[in-house]
């Protein structure tokens, strides 16, 4: 008998397990999306610096920082 069975009974326990799995899948998808955004923005920053647009690159770096922090929060939940 696991914790869910003791607290909620079998029917609610199985539903909770399904919901937890769905949430974990959704969080993984969000993490992958954030990671791809960060990769793309990094490439954009490199190109902006090569082209001499340092001001725009700095704003993109701020976006990278925010996206990385958001991605780390998602990882903490997985």
Explain what this protein looks like in three dimensions.
Pfam families: Ist1. Belongs to the IST1 family. The protein has one domain. By secondary structure, it is mainly alpha-helical. The model has no long low-confidence stretch (mean pLDDT 80). The longest helix is centred in the middle third of the chain and has 42 residues, at 10-51. Helix 2 runs antiparallel to helix 3. The two termini are 24 Å apart. It has three helices and no strands.
Secondary-structure element order, as H and E? HHH
The helical percent reads over 70%
Number of helices: 3
Which regions contain 5 or more consecutive residues with pLDDT less than 50?
none
Structural class: mainly alpha
Strand content: under 5%
Mean pLDDT over all positions: 80
Largest sheet, in brief, is: none
Number of strands: 0
The rounded Rg comes to 20 Å
